[in-house]
Amino acid sequence: MLTITTYDWVPDMAKGYVRDLRIRWACHEAGLPYRIESTSLSGKTPQHFARQPFGQVPMLRDGDLSIFESGAILLYLGERHPALMPEGAADRVKAQQWLIAALNTLEPPAMMLAMARWIKQDPAAEGIVLPWLHDRLGQLETVLQGREFIAADRFTVADILMADILRIVDGLGEIAPYPGLKAYQDRITARPAFQQALAEQLAHFAQAA
Fold first, then answer.
1. What pTM was computed for the model?
2. How far apart are CA 30 and CA 113, in angstroms?
3. CATH 3.40.50.1820 fits 2-83+193-208, yes or no
4. Which of 16, 205, 93, 120 is nearest to 129 (CA)?
5. Are 16 and 201 spatial neighbours (Cβ–Cβ below 8 Å)?
6. Cβ(172)–Cβ(115) below 8 Å
7. What are the boundaries of each domain within the chain?
8. Average pLDDT for runs of 10 along the chain of length 209
9. CATH match for 89-191 among 3.90.950.20, 3.40.50.360, 1.20.1050.10, 3.40.1050.10
10. DSSP string, 38-101
11. How confident is the model at residue 37, as a pLDDT?
């Protein structure tokens, strides 16, 4: 059975957004059983750093193999389970491309805005990053016109990454000018696998509290 490592506790604002959600979601889409193990948010052990040199989560253990970074874990699962990746070589490359684009192009300005607005409360930093984020959102809105999914004619791991990052944008109150992105986010997160993964993560942190 797969083992997903997440935190034992997070502040309220992080509940429902910790990145182990992405891995839980993928497992539910593929029908893969998993167990959860917890690590401390503040008191990370040498064993944790041995598996994740930056002390972050999630991590995935599959037998003797330990993997960190949500994108790498999703690619690993996608290569092994047809529910998460298309069969054709061209479509697989497109899914990989859009997964990386979600992580490298959309997530950085979204997370920087979240940091400036929610944690640092830094209006100057917010003013710098907000135009950058909206440039990216406008470009993505154009791409998604006429598409149900981001990378292919079916759901892939790229949709997990893209929709989850758009949830952050929505939480920041910045998705309203982009009805296509909002419709895509709502459509992808309406999937039963996402709803189950979210409920499980929230229950995990509620039990810890």
1. 0.97
2. 33
3. no
4. 120
5. yes
6. no
7. 2-83+193-208, 89-191
8. 96 96 98 96 92 97 98 97 95 97 98 92 93 98 97 95 98 97 98 98 91
9. 1.20.1050.10
10. EE-SSS--HHHHHH-TT--S-EEEETTEEEESHHHHHHHHHHH-TTTS-SSHHHHHHHHHHHHH
11. 97
Dist CA 162 CA 41 (whole Å): 25
Q: Is 110 buried (19+), middle (13-18) or exposed (0-12) by CB count in 10 A? A: buried
Amino acid at 145: Q
Q: Report the distance separating Cα 88 and Cα 65, nearest Å.
A: 27
One-letter amino acid of 195: Q
Query: Where do we find the tokens 């998460």?
Result: 84
Q: Are 133 and 127 in contact (CB under 8 A)?
A: no
